[in-house]
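can u pls check wat happens w/ heme-as
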Amino acid sequence: MSQTMIKVDRRDGKLAMAHLYVAFIALALGGLAGLLQTLVRSGRFELPLGIDYYQVLTTHGVLLGLVLTTFFIMGFQFAAVSRTSGTFTKKARIAGWIGFVVMTVGTIMTTIMILLNEASVLYTFYAPLQAHALFYLGLTLVIVGSWIGGGAMIANYVRWRKANPGKPSPILTFMTVINMLMWFVATLGVAVSVLFQLLPWSLGWIDTVNVLVTRTLFWYFGHPLVYFWLLPAYMAWYVIIPKVIGGKMFSDSMARLSFILFLLFSIPVGLHHQLTEPGIDAFWKYIQVVLTFLVVIPSLMTAFSLFANFEMFGRSKGATGLFGWFKMLPWKDARFVVPFIGMIAFIPGGAGGIINASFQMNQVVHNTIWVTGHFHLTVATAVILTFFGITYWLVPHLTGRVLTKAMNQLAIIQGIVWGVGMLIMSSAMHIAGLLGAPRRSSFSTYGDAPQAIDWIPYQVAQAIGGSILFLGIILMIIIFINLTFFAPKGEEEFPVAEVADKAERTPMVFENWKIWVTILVALILIAYTVPIMEMIQDGPPGSKGFKLW
Ligand code: HAS
């Protein structure tokens, strides 16, 4: 390992690791709930001890979709900011720890309420399903904690900018800032819904809520939420993978531009989750469908950039022909192979997203298990395998250990097991969805439907895929424990690629936040003002207006 290897400060490393511990505990528990769910849906298994299907589904969605992702992302970003723009100040690090504690307390509260069957409202917690007030309070704490942690990251960025006037900030820090800005703006929606509607309603302070407004505020948050998951994976794809394969970044400017586009277009698109919902004028749905197609562009740019990276690297090694570069990629390195499986999955995952977003076509797939298939390819494969790929070097880097040959081998097996399990489970979900199999339903509610005969074999296939995936989770936990506590001591690199020599200079306009935040606010106001006003004005009696009490 090179003498000049830049290490994450040990104290910042501890903060990052604390987040990863919670993330991997959530993976183990949430994964178990996922296994139970696929078994129940197959109709071949009944939950013991009076456990309810929706309780298990909520555990799965909240622990994996909200807890694992948020904790992993915060931990990774703390490490990335510390690595690229310098150690956190004492104050910022303390803020980071406060944020962590607040998030963890919130997570414990939420999880207990779900396990007590007091909050079987799924991860979307749609009204009129109602949860115990502590569930909503717990989720609020998770969000507030992430704001505090995000504030610490932004403070480090501001400090770097002051010390380096006129220079573009380190790209991983820049990307973190974009992800956190998007998160701040997005979480405002869910915070308003929880604090002014769901929580007072659950406490009995108000009798009714405006269901449509709460759902709309959820999706105002819910779509950027999926990009909050995706962008850290893109950080790895743009900046880390090129270094892992031994190459350089194709273009720094293009990576930054794609992140700016995500910031602008991730939020004003939430209505594409509500295309079949009455009470929202088709015109506004159409506007948001158009904006959704704009948010596809930065992903297409990312695909282009990845191919360019791979090809540039392959040709530098003497590859010829259209696909000669493919053979040159490091197929024995888990840090590359595992995220690469994620990239492959993102091609059908993204295509499925485009189908979902295609307005009328959405009617075919909405509320079927097709949608579950879509997000298992995107978040549960593309994103999560990239997070696993990051874990394979980040954890040893932070714990002062190394990824041994044996663990590297096991990690590749883990990635393949995941890929195979997901291929089976998600293909079955897509097909069953097209045959009409509902989403969010247990066998006992759909098993007697005459059409069920068509899709039940696919539900069984899902259980097979789900069981293979659970094996993948066990392997991942073994590797995590090894890298944290048992791997031999040593130094593992935190890979950050340099930019290719021929790339254009990065323009400073990318860091002119006044421009981007103004456009962002304008787009949100255009996309949401009228529909929300209409929902409030035309709200059903009893929930008229967004009144408090
Ligand atoms: Fe989605 C529903 C539309 C992306 C997650 N989505 C969901 C839900 C989740 C989710 C969790 O319009 C369910 C929510 C719920 O509980 O109800 N989604 C899209 C669109 C995109 C998209 C247009 N989704 C994601 C990502 C997610 C995610 C990313 C998580 C991380 N989604 C929808 C819609 C719904 C929806 C509707 C509502 C459905 C309904 O009716 O309820 C786009 O962002 C996708 C763009 C992606 C691409 C792919 C680019 C490919 C790349 C890889 C290149 C590979 C290489 C390697 C280079 C265009 C970058 C290859 C090498 C070789 C050698 C081949």
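The pocket of heme-as is lined by residues 124, 226, 229-230, 272-273, 292, 295-296, 299-300, 302-303, 306-307, 326, 343-344, 346-347, 350, 353-354, 356-357, 362, 365-366, 371, 374-375, 378-379, 383 (CB under 6 Å).
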